[in-house]
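We emphasize that the prediction below concerns an isolated chain of 262 residues; any contacts that depend on oligomerization or on bound cofactors are therefore not represented. The input was used exactly as deposited, without trimming of termini.
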Amino acid sequence: MRTVPLLMMLACMAGAETMQAVDAKSPATPILVELFTSEGCSSCPPADAWLKQIDKSQPIPGAQLIVLSEHVDYWDHDGWKDPYSSSVFTDRQSSYAHALGIQSPYTPQVIVDGTSDLQLSDQQHIGQALRSATQPSPVTMRISAVKIEGDSPAILRAHIDADGSAEKHNADIYAAVALDHAESQVLHGENGGRRLSHVAVTEQLIKIGKLERGKTFSTDLQAKLKPGMDPGNLRIVVFAQEQGFGKVLGAALQEVNSPGKQ
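Result of the prediction step, given as a token string:
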């Protein structure tokens, strides 16, 4: 596994800050931005900060950047076990590497809409890749009826709809339950002594169904939350992705603690 050099990531962040702010009146195309990261990787904190910055500033006109942090586990043997890491995300990253013809997964790695391996060392490429993804989404996703029930453990429930009437491919429907924000005091490893901050930390990634081409999809999501998890610090992300780790055809985001929740 390789890493993106720290100085290159810092340059990438500086470039992101110069992008034009999004016009709030423009129709927003959802773009899924997946960051594969690890608290055990010294090159990752700038990428974590960059993801947090674009999540907040939404720098691409006409786009809604829907971000997910997916913490891989192959750094866990180097002195620090990332509390958010999972083999599920390592496997997902490896599947992307195979599908996109990437020689080897690396951290930090950003995949845009399932098709673009973002070159974090190239500021121009970042802007071009994100802007080129602002084409209308063929699948419209919707999250509604979000609620938390019970405790120890609490259950997150939501209703998911997908309209694929304009789509010509079958797709898998995924739901991610993510921490809106998270912090860690890293005691050992490459980031030992640092306090790290993350956004949209994926806790669960669930394949909830299949969208057949030209049809619609509807289901109820039920996810058991970990004990002690703050239900006011959650977001749900759903997306439709061509089978075989192909293009993301549509996505939606709902913050569980938002005023619009039901």
